[in-house]
Amino acid sequence: MFGMRKKIMPVYTYGAPVLKAIAAPVEKITPEIRELADRMIDTMFAFDGIGLAAPQVGVSKRIVALALPAQLPADYEPSPAEELLLPMMPMVIINPQIISYGKDKYISDEGCLSVPDIYAPVERPRTIVFQTEIIDYGIVTVEAGGLLARCIQHEMDHLNGTLFVEKVAPEAYTKIDARVRTLIARGAQNNYQRRK
Questions:
Q1: Among 27, 77, 155, 171, the one annotated catalytic
Q2: Is 155 a catalytic residue?
């Protein structure tokens, strides 16, 4: 709403204990969960992200904010999940779970708001089938591909206490190792928090 102050939360960086915990399921969508969802969307946009898991803002709950671009290349065939979900962005999903993974894998660079300014290649399945509850929409089970499938897998890792740098192959990790160590050292000086 015009004139309302956005409630930006600090984003926790690699090294923060909350990022290593397995997040708890959300039992019920309460007014507090809705408030958290709104704050997560504001925070994600403030930090120029396309996905943000609740542990990244210090809340160990199975909640993810998403804001993938709705515009797809003209010759791109969207997955069922992309057709359904991209027009609804930004959104917040609750208790997402991956039901199955496609056999075809591919490698692509990833970044993360909790690992700022560091990008590295990660191998992931090209497609997934996932189920989630979407606030104000209900429960969906859909097959996802493309950036949406990668983003869901990345954010699910956060809910399970894993960051993308932990999935980088050893040879590629040597290229980012020094920057990761510097990030952890600087993070410790700032209570592992980035603020806007």
A1: 155
A2: yes
